[in-house]
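Checklist before submission:
- one chain only
- standard amino acids only
- sequence pasted in full

Submission:
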Amino acid sequence: MTSSARLLVLEETRCALCGADGGDVEAAGVDFEYDTAENQFAFVRCGACDHVYLNPRPLSRDLPAIYPSNYYAYAESGGGLVAPVRRFWEGGKVRLYRQLVGDGARRILDVGCGNGRFLSILREYGPPEWELEGVDFDEAAAKQCEARGFRAYVSRVEDFESEGGAFDAIVMLQLIEHVDDPVAICERVFSLLRPGGCFIVETPNLAGLDYRAFRGRWWGHYHFPRHWNLFSTASLHRMLTERGFVVERTEHLISPSAWTVSLHNYFRDRGWPGWVVRFFHFQNPLLLAAFVSLDWARARLGFPTSNQRVVARRPRESLIPTEA
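Returned file contents:
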């Protein structure tokens, strides 16, 4: 561990999807990637609904500690070949968004917009009439987003109040696994969407070859202790439909970084030399190319990967379901 690592106070929690208490340990490990804590962490599988969640987990006051200044999401997407290839690949998502949302005047919100990187991709590849906005709880990130020319709000999405009416689409990419109450977020997104609007979610999937190979400790998407909720496709669908959404489509996505981080975690935990561990960096272009090819082939053949995209839509006439 690094000298900055310390033993964090952890709090017990319940399943975010059903409220049940207790379950079997799914995985246990340490912060293999950033050494932010000395703790051992565990994911448990809910005995009532099968959802997987971190328990116990860090306190909200320690979020700055577990998300250090060198955290990958705070930086641009790397140099060399990685950044332009990733930008081109993500630009391909906009074709799907145009099918779902349509051209012309459309209002789109990126939840967890950060510095506006993905909004800039939507602006580059999407129609000029789209009104692109972001929300992020980090004030510095929101200011960077505004500097790129977007309207950005500083808020948790659970507390967010729209100033300009409802949205045609809300995007949440690799975020819902980080939050303490994904159900509350789904409810708020539902209320922010216009009837017929769509919710686009990308999040890790408890499936794929890498999950099976590294399950229990080293899988990259455990991401101890920053991922708090991990979804199977079934549990993600259930959460969305119980909050009033209609699931429209589900896709398996490539997840090359999950492979490289899993291998990094394995070799580090096994005490291999530092140069071997450093080779398995999530931006190593050779490894990314290999695992992009592998996941792409599996997805094309209909096999699950450890990353998923679900598109859900708010029905044109519906109410948020009430508890029985």
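Reviewer check: The mean pLDDT is 91.
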